[in-house]
Amino acid sequence: MTAGAQRRRAFWQILLFSAGLLVLTVISAGSVYLVNKARDDSKWVIHTIEAENQINTLLLEIRRAESAARGYLLTQGADFKADHEKAVAAIIPILDKLTRLTGDNPAQRESIEKLSAAIETRLGQFAQEMDFIRQGQPDKAAALVREIASTDTTAAIGKVATEMIQEEERLFRLRTANSDRSQTLAASMTGIGSGLVVLLALISIWLVRRSAGARNEAEARLRDTNVNLEAVVDERTADLREANDEIQRFAYIVSHDLRSPLVNIMGFTSELEELGGDIFRRIGSLTQAASDAPPPAAGEIALEGPDQQLSADFSEALGFIKSSIAKMDRLISAILNLTREGRREFQPEKIDTRELIEAIVSTLAHQASEAQAEIRVEPLPNLVSDRLALEQIFSNLIDNGIKYLKNGVPGEIRIRGRTKLGYAIFEVNDNGRGIDPKDHQRIFDLFRRAGTQDKQGQGIGLAHVRALVRRLGGTMSVSSELNAGSTFTITLPINWNASNRNADK
Q1: How far is CA 125 from CA 85, 153, 154, in A?
Q2: What pLDDT digit, counting tens, does each position of 157-167 carry?
Q3: Which of 18, 74, 145, 190 is such that its CA lies 20 to 30 A from the CA of 2?
Q4: DSSP strand E in 123-240: where?
Protein backbone atom coordinates (compact mmCIF):
# COMPACT_ATOMS: atom_id res chain seq x y z
CA MET A 1 0.00 0.00 0.00
CA THR A 2 1.32 3.41 -0.99
CA ALA A 3 1.86 6.23 1.48
CA GLY A 4 -1.00 8.19 -0.10
CA ALA A 5 -3.41 5.27 0.30
CA GLN A 6 -2.35 4.84 3.90
CA ARG A 7 -2.98 8.51 4.58
CA ARG A 8 -6.41 8.34 2.93
CA ARG A 9 -7.34 5.25 4.91
CA ALA A 10 -6.16 6.87 8.12
CA PHE A 11 -8.20 9.99 7.24
CA TRP A 12 -11.40 7.99 6.68
CA GLN A 13 -10.83 5.99 9.85
CA ILE A 14 -10.39 9.19 11.84
CA LEU A 15 -13.46 10.69 10.14
CA LEU A 16 -15.52 7.60 10.93
CA PHE A 17 -14.37 7.58 14.51
CA SER A 18 -15.17 11.30 14.84
CA ALA A 19 -18.62 10.78 13.29
CA GLY A 20 -19.34 7.87 15.60
CA LEU A 21 -18.20 9.89 18.60
CA LEU A 22 -20.35 12.84 17.50
CA VAL A 23 -23.40 10.62 16.97
CA LEU A 24 -22.98 8.96 20.33
CA THR A 25 -22.55 12.35 21.99
CA VAL A 26 -25.68 13.78 20.33
CA ILE A 27 -27.69 10.65 21.09
CA SER A 28 -26.53 10.57 24.68
CA ALA A 29 -27.19 14.28 25.23
CA GLY A 30 -30.58 14.12 23.45
CA SER A 31 -31.62 10.99 25.29
CA VAL A 32 -30.64 12.45 28.64
CA TYR A 33 -32.54 15.66 27.86
CA LEU A 34 -35.67 13.90 26.62
CA VAL A 35 -35.68 11.36 29.46
CA ASN A 36 -35.36 14.18 31.98
CA LYS A 37 -38.10 16.13 30.23
CA ALA A 38 -40.37 13.05 30.17
CA ARG A 39 -39.65 12.53 33.85
CA ASP A 40 -40.50 16.17 34.59
CA ASP A 41 -43.70 15.96 32.54
CA SER A 42 -44.69 12.75 34.34
CA LYS A 43 -43.96 14.45 37.64
CA TRP A 44 -46.31 17.31 36.73
CA VAL A 45 -49.00 14.82 35.73
CA ILE A 46 -48.66 13.13 39.10
CA HIS A 47 -48.62 16.58 40.71
CA THR A 48 -51.94 17.40 39.04
CA ILE A 49 -53.49 14.10 40.11
CA GLU A 50 -52.30 14.66 43.66
CA ALA A 51 -53.75 18.21 43.73
CA GLU A 52 -57.11 16.94 42.46
CA ASN A 53 -57.07 14.16 45.06
CA GLN A 54 -56.41 16.73 47.79
CA ILE A 55 -59.39 18.82 46.65
CA ASN A 56 -61.67 15.79 46.71
CA THR A 57 -60.28 14.74 50.10
CA LEU A 58 -60.94 18.24 51.45
CA LEU A 59 -64.55 18.15 50.25
CA LEU A 60 -64.97 14.68 51.74
CA GLU A 61 -63.69 15.81 55.15
CA ILE A 62 -66.02 18.86 55.12
CA ARG A 63 -69.03 16.67 54.31
CA ARG A 64 -67.92 14.21 56.96
CA ALA A 65 -67.71 16.99 59.54
CA GLU A 66 -71.21 18.22 58.59
CA SER A 67 -72.73 14.74 58.81
CA ALA A 68 -71.10 14.01 62.15
CA ALA A 69 -72.25 17.38 63.54
CA ARG A 70 -75.85 16.76 62.53
CA GLY A 71 -75.74 13.23 63.90
CA TYR A 72 -74.37 14.55 67.18
CA LEU A 73 -77.08 17.22 67.23
CA LEU A 74 -79.80 14.62 66.80
CA THR A 75 -78.48 11.79 68.97
CA GLN A 76 -75.94 13.39 71.30
CA GLY A 77 -73.83 10.30 70.57
CA ALA A 78 -70.14 10.38 71.51
CA ASP A 79 -69.15 8.54 68.30
CA PHE A 80 -70.58 11.34 66.17
CA LYS A 81 -68.72 13.90 68.24
CA ALA A 82 -65.42 12.08 67.89
CA ASP A 83 -65.93 11.61 64.16
CA HIS A 84 -66.71 15.33 63.79
CA GLU A 85 -63.63 16.42 65.70
CA LYS A 86 -61.45 14.06 63.67
CA ALA A 87 -62.81 15.43 60.40
CA VAL A 88 -62.33 19.06 61.52
CA ALA A 89 -58.77 18.33 62.62
CA ALA A 90 -57.93 16.90 59.15
CA ILE A 91 -59.33 19.87 57.19
CA ILE A 92 -56.57 22.44 57.91
CA PRO A 93 -53.56 20.12 57.09
CA ILE A 94 -55.26 19.10 53.84
CA LEU A 95 -55.90 22.74 52.99
CA ASP A 96 -52.23 23.63 53.71
CA LYS A 97 -50.97 20.82 51.47
CA LEU A 98 -53.38 21.86 48.72
CA THR A 99 -52.10 25.43 49.00
CA ARG A 100 -48.53 24.21 48.45
CA LEU A 101 -49.52 21.99 45.52
CA THR A 102 -51.35 24.77 43.67
CA GLY A 103 -48.88 27.53 44.45
CA ASP A 104 -47.40 27.37 40.90
CA ASN A 105 -50.70 28.31 39.25
CA PRO A 106 -51.96 31.95 39.66
CA ALA A 107 -55.59 30.96 38.93
CA GLN A 108 -55.46 28.24 41.55
CA ARG A 109 -53.87 30.60 44.08
CA GLU A 110 -56.84 32.95 43.68
CA SER A 111 -59.24 30.06 44.11
CA ILE A 112 -57.42 28.75 47.16
CA GLU A 113 -57.83 32.14 48.83
CA LYS A 114 -61.59 32.00 48.31
CA LEU A 115 -61.69 28.40 49.47
CA SER A 116 -59.65 29.16 52.59
CA ALA A 117 -62.01 32.02 53.52
CA ALA A 118 -65.10 29.85 53.04
CA ILE A 119 -63.62 26.94 54.98
CA GLU A 120 -62.60 29.28 57.80
CA THR A 121 -66.22 30.54 57.99
CA ARG A 122 -67.56 26.99 57.96
CA LEU A 123 -65.19 25.85 60.68
CA GLY A 124 -66.36 28.77 62.81
CA GLN A 125 -69.94 27.67 62.29
CA PHE A 126 -69.02 24.12 63.27
CA ALA A 127 -67.49 25.44 66.47
CA GLN A 128 -70.66 27.44 67.34
CA GLU A 129 -72.87 24.43 66.70
CA MET A 130 -70.77 22.24 68.96
CA ASP A 131 -70.70 24.91 71.68
CA PHE A 132 -74.51 25.19 71.69
CA ILE A 133 -74.84 21.42 71.93
CA ARG A 134 -72.29 21.22 74.78
CA GLN A 135 -74.19 24.01 76.60
CA GLY A 136 -77.41 21.99 76.33
CA GLN A 137 -79.05 24.40 73.85
CA PRO A 138 -79.96 22.14 70.91
CA ASP A 139 -82.60 24.58 69.75
CA LYS A 140 -80.05 27.29 69.14
CA ALA A 141 -77.79 24.75 67.42
CA ALA A 142 -80.70 23.71 65.13
CA ALA A 143 -81.48 27.35 64.40
CA LEU A 144 -77.84 27.90 63.51
CA VAL A 145 -77.93 24.91 61.16
CA ARG A 146 -80.98 26.35 59.42
CA GLU A 147 -79.27 29.74 59.18
CA ILE A 148 -76.13 28.12 57.69
CA ALA A 149 -78.28 26.27 55.20
CA SER A 150 -79.79 29.57 54.11
CA THR A 151 -76.37 31.19 53.60
CA ASP A 152 -75.22 28.06 51.69
CA THR A 153 -71.55 28.25 52.83
CA THR A 154 -71.05 24.61 51.98
CA ALA A 155 -72.32 25.19 48.47
CA ALA A 156 -69.82 28.02 48.06
CA ILE A 157 -67.03 25.71 49.15
CA GLY A 158 -68.21 23.07 46.68
CA LYS A 159 -68.37 25.60 43.84
CA VAL A 160 -64.80 26.83 44.39
CA ALA A 161 -63.58 23.25 44.77
CA THR A 162 -65.31 22.27 41.51
CA GLU A 163 -63.64 25.16 39.68
CA MET A 164 -60.27 24.06 41.05
CA ILE A 165 -60.92 20.45 39.99
CA GLN A 166 -61.81 21.62 36.47
CA GLU A 167 -58.55 23.61 36.30
CA GLU A 168 -56.57 20.61 37.47
CA GLU A 169 -58.31 18.41 34.87
CA ARG A 170 -57.36 20.92 32.17
CA LEU A 171 -53.75 20.84 33.42
CA PHE A 172 -53.90 17.06 33.56
CA ARG A 173 -54.90 16.83 29.88
CA LEU A 174 -52.19 19.32 28.87
CA ARG A 175 -49.47 17.74 30.95
CA THR A 176 -50.44 14.23 29.87
CA ALA A 177 -50.09 15.29 26.25
CA ASN A 178 -46.67 16.81 26.98
CA SER A 179 -45.53 13.68 28.79
CA ASP A 180 -46.69 11.44 25.93
CA ARG A 181 -44.90 13.63 23.41
CA SER A 182 -41.65 13.61 25.46
CA GLN A 183 -41.73 9.85 25.81
CA THR A 184 -42.40 9.46 22.08
CA LEU A 185 -39.46 11.74 21.24
CA ALA A 186 -37.19 9.88 23.67
CA ALA A 187 -38.15 6.55 22.14
CA SER A 188 -37.64 7.94 18.63
CA MET A 189 -34.26 9.36 19.57
CA THR A 190 -33.20 6.06 21.09
CA GLY A 191 -34.38 4.13 18.01
CA ILE A 192 -32.65 6.49 15.55
CA GLY A 193 -29.50 6.51 17.66
CA SER A 194 -29.47 2.74 17.88
CA GLY A 195 -29.86 2.49 14.11
CA LEU A 196 -26.97 4.92 13.55
CA VAL A 197 -24.80 3.05 16.04
CA VAL A 198 -25.55 -0.24 14.28
CA LEU A 199 -24.74 1.37 10.91
CA LEU A 200 -21.47 2.77 12.21
CA ALA A 201 -20.67 -0.61 13.78
CA LEU A 202 -21.21 -2.33 10.43
CA ILE A 203 -19.02 0.23 8.65
CA SER A 204 -16.37 -0.18 11.37
CA ILE A 205 -16.46 -3.98 11.00
CA TRP A 206 -16.04 -3.59 7.24
CA LEU A 207 -13.10 -1.22 7.68
CA VAL A 208 -11.52 -3.45 10.33
CA ARG A 209 -11.78 -6.50 8.09
CA ARG A 210 -10.35 -4.49 5.23
CA SER A 211 -7.52 -3.22 7.43
CA ALA A 212 -6.91 -6.73 8.76
CA GLY A 213 -6.61 -8.03 5.20
CA ALA A 214 -4.19 -5.24 4.30
CA ARG A 215 -2.24 -5.88 7.50
CA ASN A 216 -2.01 -9.61 6.81
CA GLU A 217 -0.77 -8.87 3.32
CA ALA A 218 1.79 -6.41 4.69
CA GLU A 219 2.87 -8.92 7.35
CA ALA A 220 3.37 -11.57 4.67
CA ARG A 221 5.54 -9.16 2.69
CA LEU A 222 7.35 -8.20 5.89
CA ARG A 223 8.04 -11.85 6.72
CA ASP A 224 9.50 -12.36 3.28
CA THR A 225 11.59 -9.25 3.73
CA ASN A 226 12.68 -10.33 7.21
CA VAL A 227 13.89 -13.66 5.90
CA ASN A 228 16.21 -11.82 3.53
CA LEU A 229 17.01 -9.20 6.15
CA GLU A 230 18.00 -11.79 8.75
CA ALA A 231 20.33 -13.37 6.23
CA VAL A 232 21.83 -9.96 5.43
CA VAL A 233 22.12 -9.10 9.14
CA ASP A 234 23.78 -12.43 9.89
CA GLU A 235 26.18 -11.86 7.03
CA ARG A 236 26.99 -8.33 8.16
CA THR A 237 27.31 -9.48 11.78
CA ALA A 238 29.75 -12.17 10.75
CA ASP A 239 31.72 -9.60 8.74
CA LEU A 240 31.78 -7.20 11.68
CA ARG A 241 32.81 -9.96 14.08
CA GLU A 242 35.57 -11.01 11.71
CA ALA A 243 36.68 -7.40 11.28
CA ASN A 244 36.65 -6.87 15.04
CA ASP A 245 38.70 -10.00 15.60
CA GLU A 246 41.07 -8.89 12.86
CA ILE A 247 41.48 -5.47 14.49
CA GLN A 248 42.18 -7.09 17.84
CA ARG A 249 44.71 -9.44 16.27
CA PHE A 250 46.28 -6.54 14.41
CA ALA A 251 46.52 -4.47 17.58
CA TYR A 252 48.00 -7.41 19.45
CA ILE A 253 50.53 -8.16 16.69
CA VAL A 254 51.50 -4.51 16.29
CA SER A 255 51.86 -4.01 20.03
CA HIS A 256 53.78 -7.24 20.39
CA ASP A 257 56.07 -6.46 17.44
CA LEU A 258 56.69 -2.93 18.71
CA ARG A 259 58.22 -4.40 21.82
CA SER A 260 61.16 -5.87 19.87
CA PRO A 261 62.54 -2.55 18.52
CA LEU A 262 61.63 -0.92 21.82
CA VAL A 263 63.73 -3.46 23.72
CA ASN A 264 66.57 -2.84 21.27
CA ILE A 265 66.27 0.90 21.78
CA MET A 266 66.28 0.41 25.54
CA GLY A 267 69.40 -1.79 25.27
CA PHE A 268 71.24 0.60 22.95
CA THR A 269 70.27 3.52 25.20
CA SER A 270 71.88 1.77 28.15
CA GLU A 271 75.00 1.04 26.07
CA LEU A 272 75.03 4.65 24.86
CA GLU A 273 74.81 5.80 28.46
CA GLU A 274 77.80 3.64 29.42
CA LEU A 275 79.68 4.71 26.27
CA GLY A 276 78.98 8.37 27.08
CA GLY A 277 80.35 7.83 30.57
CA ASP A 278 83.49 6.27 29.17
CA ILE A 279 83.94 9.08 26.63
CA PHE A 280 83.53 11.84 29.19
CA ARG A 281 85.83 10.07 31.66
CA ARG A 282 88.40 9.80 28.85
CA ILE A 283 88.03 13.49 28.08
CA GLY A 284 88.40 14.29 31.77
CA SER A 285 91.53 12.17 32.00
CA LEU A 286 93.11 13.87 29.01
CA THR A 287 92.24 17.27 30.43
CA GLN A 288 93.83 16.39 33.79
CA ALA A 289 96.96 15.01 32.09
CA ALA A 290 97.39 18.17 30.04
CA SER A 291 97.09 20.35 33.14
CA ASP A 292 99.29 18.08 35.36
CA ALA A 293 96.42 17.95 37.88
CA PRO A 294 96.06 14.94 40.20
CA PRO A 295 93.93 12.15 38.70
CA PRO A 296 90.28 12.02 39.85
CA ALA A 297 89.01 9.37 42.20
CA ALA A 298 87.72 6.14 40.72
CA GLY A 299 84.32 6.51 39.11
CA GLU A 300 84.42 10.29 39.02
CA ILE A 301 84.56 12.44 35.90
CA ALA A 302 86.57 15.61 36.23
CA LEU A 303 85.28 18.00 33.60
CA GLU A 304 85.47 21.70 33.35
CA GLY A 305 83.86 24.45 31.29
CA PRO A 306 82.31 23.38 27.99
CA ASP A 307 83.07 19.71 28.60
CA GLN A 308 81.07 19.72 31.81
CA GLN A 309 78.08 21.43 30.09
CA LEU A 310 78.31 18.93 27.21
CA SER A 311 78.18 16.06 29.72
CA ALA A 312 75.13 17.56 31.41
CA ASP A 313 73.36 18.04 28.05
CA PHE A 314 74.18 14.48 27.08
CA SER A 315 72.77 13.14 30.37
CA GLU A 316 69.66 15.24 30.00
CA ALA A 317 69.08 13.97 26.45
CA LEU A 318 69.48 10.39 27.60
CA GLY A 319 67.01 11.06 30.40
CA PHE A 320 64.40 12.29 27.90
CA ILE A 321 65.00 9.26 25.73
CA LYS A 322 64.64 6.84 28.64
CA SER A 323 61.49 8.64 29.89
CA SER A 324 59.91 8.43 26.42
CA ILE A 325 60.88 4.77 26.13
CA ALA A 326 59.30 4.04 29.50
CA LYS A 327 56.10 5.85 28.50
CA MET A 328 55.95 4.00 25.19
CA ASP A 329 56.48 0.74 27.04
CA ARG A 330 53.55 1.50 29.33
CA LEU A 331 51.32 2.38 26.36
CA ILE A 332 52.22 -0.80 24.53
CA SER A 333 51.55 -2.81 27.69
CA ALA A 334 48.19 -1.11 28.05
CA ILE A 335 47.25 -1.89 24.44
CA LEU A 336 48.24 -5.52 24.93
CA ASN A 337 46.11 -5.71 28.07
CA LEU A 338 43.16 -4.18 26.22
CA THR A 339 43.42 -6.65 23.35
CA ARG A 340 43.69 -9.56 25.76
CA GLU A 341 40.70 -8.26 27.72
CA GLY A 342 38.71 -7.78 24.51
CA ARG A 343 39.16 -11.43 23.62
CA ARG A 344 38.13 -12.68 27.04
CA GLU A 345 34.65 -14.17 27.24
CA PHE A 346 32.60 -12.90 30.17
CA GLN A 347 31.19 -15.48 32.56
CA PRO A 348 28.01 -14.42 34.40
CA GLU A 349 27.67 -15.39 38.05
CA LYS A 350 25.70 -14.20 41.04
CA ILE A 351 27.69 -11.47 42.78
CA ASP A 352 27.30 -9.85 46.17
CA THR A 353 28.14 -6.36 44.96
CA ARG A 354 28.68 -4.84 48.39
CA GLU A 355 31.10 -7.62 49.34
CA LEU A 356 32.98 -7.20 46.04
CA ILE A 357 33.36 -3.42 46.46
CA GLU A 358 34.35 -3.71 50.12
CA ALA A 359 37.13 -6.10 49.04
CA ILE A 360 38.29 -3.48 46.50
CA VAL A 361 38.18 -0.78 49.17
CA SER A 362 40.32 -2.90 51.51
CA THR A 363 43.04 -3.23 48.82
CA LEU A 364 43.02 0.56 48.38
CA ALA A 365 42.93 1.32 52.10
CA HIS A 366 46.63 2.35 52.23
CA GLN A 367 46.22 4.79 49.33
CA ALA A 368 43.05 6.20 50.91
CA SER A 369 44.81 6.66 54.24
CA GLU A 370 47.71 8.52 52.63
CA ALA A 371 45.24 10.77 50.77
CA GLN A 372 43.23 11.32 54.00
CA ALA A 373 40.14 9.98 52.24
CA GLU A 374 37.18 8.14 53.70
CA ILE A 375 35.36 5.61 51.52
CA ARG A 376 31.73 4.84 52.36
CA VAL A 377 29.90 1.88 50.85
CA GLU A 378 26.12 2.09 51.12
CA PRO A 379 23.68 -0.83 50.53
CA LEU A 380 24.01 -2.03 46.94
CA PRO A 381 21.87 -4.31 44.73
CA ASN A 382 23.27 -7.72 43.82
CA LEU A 383 23.91 -8.68 40.20
CA VAL A 384 24.34 -11.59 37.86
CA SER A 385 27.36 -10.42 35.83
CA ASP A 386 31.07 -10.95 35.16
CA ARG A 387 33.05 -10.63 38.40
CA LEU A 388 36.41 -9.65 36.89
CA ALA A 389 34.82 -6.94 34.74
CA LEU A 390 33.03 -5.47 37.77
CA GLU A 391 36.26 -5.52 39.78
CA GLN A 392 38.07 -3.62 37.02
CA ILE A 393 35.21 -1.10 36.68
CA PHE A 394 34.90 -0.19 40.34
CA SER A 395 38.65 -0.48 41.10
CA ASN A 396 39.38 2.09 38.41
CA LEU A 397 36.64 4.50 39.53
CA ILE A 398 37.53 4.31 43.23
CA ASP A 399 41.26 4.62 42.45
CA ASN A 400 40.57 7.72 40.35
CA GLY A 401 38.45 9.14 43.16
CA ILE A 402 41.39 8.78 45.57
CA LYS A 403 43.94 10.01 43.04
CA TYR A 404 42.16 13.23 42.07
CA LEU A 405 41.09 14.61 45.45
CA LYS A 406 41.70 18.26 46.30
CA ASN A 407 44.87 18.99 48.24
CA GLY A 408 44.32 19.94 51.86
CA VAL A 409 40.68 18.85 51.87
CA PRO A 410 39.65 15.59 53.60
CA GLY A 411 38.41 13.30 50.87
CA GLU A 412 35.06 11.57 50.88
CA ILE A 413 34.16 8.88 48.35
CA ARG A 414 30.71 7.32 48.44
CA ILE A 415 29.44 4.30 46.52
CA ARG A 416 25.65 3.87 46.45
CA GLY A 417 23.14 1.98 44.33
CA ARG A 418 19.48 1.38 43.57
CA THR A 419 17.34 -0.61 41.13
CA LYS A 420 14.90 0.53 38.47
CA LEU A 421 13.02 -1.46 35.81
CA GLY A 422 15.35 -4.46 35.84
CA TYR A 423 18.56 -2.40 36.01
CA ALA A 424 20.96 -1.62 38.82
CA ILE A 425 22.16 1.99 38.99
CA PHE A 426 25.49 2.60 40.78
CA GLU A 427 26.93 6.01 41.65
CA VAL A 428 30.57 6.63 42.63
CA ASN A 429 30.71 10.12 44.10
CA ASP A 430 33.69 12.11 45.39
CA ASN A 431 34.40 15.65 46.60
CA GLY A 432 37.58 15.99 44.56
CA ARG A 433 38.85 18.53 42.07
CA GLY A 434 36.08 17.81 39.55
CA ILE A 435 36.07 17.83 35.76
CA ASP A 436 35.36 20.73 33.43
CA PRO A 437 32.01 20.08 31.62
CA LYS A 438 33.73 20.53 28.25
CA ASP A 439 35.95 17.53 29.06
CA HIS A 440 33.13 15.15 30.07
CA GLN A 441 33.38 13.23 26.78
CA ARG A 442 37.13 13.66 26.38
CA ILE A 443 37.92 11.63 29.50
CA PHE A 444 36.34 8.53 27.91
CA ASP A 445 38.52 8.71 24.80
CA LEU A 446 41.53 6.41 24.55
CA PHE A 447 44.86 8.06 25.56
CA ARG A 448 43.05 11.35 26.33
CA ARG A 449 43.22 13.03 29.72
CA ALA A 450 41.69 16.20 31.14
CA GLY A 451 42.76 18.77 33.71
CA THR A 452 46.15 19.19 35.33
CA GLN A 453 48.48 16.31 34.39
CA ASP A 454 50.11 15.89 37.82
CA LYS A 455 49.25 12.20 38.28
CA GLN A 456 50.62 9.15 36.53
CA GLY A 457 48.41 7.57 33.89
CA GLN A 458 48.10 6.80 30.21
CA GLY A 459 44.50 7.92 29.62
CA ILE A 460 43.24 4.35 29.22
CA GLY A 461 41.36 3.64 32.46
CA LEU A 462 38.02 5.34 31.83
CA ALA A 463 37.95 4.30 28.18
CA HIS A 464 38.47 0.70 29.29
CA VAL A 465 35.81 1.05 31.99
CA ARG A 466 33.22 2.36 29.53
CA ALA A 467 34.05 -0.46 27.08
CA LEU A 468 33.51 -3.03 29.87
CA VAL A 469 30.22 -1.40 30.89
CA ARG A 470 28.98 -1.54 27.30
CA ARG A 471 29.97 -5.18 26.96
CA LEU A 472 27.93 -5.87 30.09
CA GLY A 473 24.89 -4.27 28.42
CA GLY A 474 24.99 -1.05 30.43
CA THR A 475 25.68 2.66 30.14
CA MET A 476 28.04 5.08 31.86
CA SER A 477 27.93 8.84 32.37
CA VAL A 478 29.59 11.54 34.47
CA SER A 479 28.24 14.61 36.24
CA SER A 480 30.89 17.05 37.47
CA GLU A 481 31.99 20.66 37.83
CA LEU A 482 35.44 22.05 38.52
CA ASN A 483 36.23 22.07 42.28
CA ALA A 484 32.83 20.52 43.01
CA GLY A 485 33.55 16.79 42.89
CA SER A 486 32.41 14.16 40.40
CA THR A 487 29.70 11.52 40.19
CA PHE A 488 30.12 8.57 37.83
CA THR A 489 26.83 6.78 37.15
CA ILE A 490 26.82 3.20 35.86
CA THR A 491 23.65 1.40 34.80
CA LEU A 492 23.88 -2.40 34.46
CA PRO A 493 21.26 -5.11 33.92
CA ILE A 494 20.49 -7.00 37.12
CA ASN A 495 20.42 -10.34 35.30
CA TRP A 496 22.94 -10.19 32.47
CA ASN A 497 22.92 -12.83 29.73
CA ALA A 498 26.37 -13.40 28.33
CA SER A 499 25.37 -15.26 25.16
CA ASN A 500 24.31 -12.29 23.06
CA ARG A 501 27.09 -9.98 24.16
CA ASN A 502 29.82 -12.53 23.65
CA ALA A 503 28.44 -13.30 20.21
CA ASP A 504 28.82 -9.64 19.27
CA LYS A 505 32.50 -9.42 20.07
Answers
A1: 13, 10, 11
A2: 888 888 888 88
A3: 18
A4: none
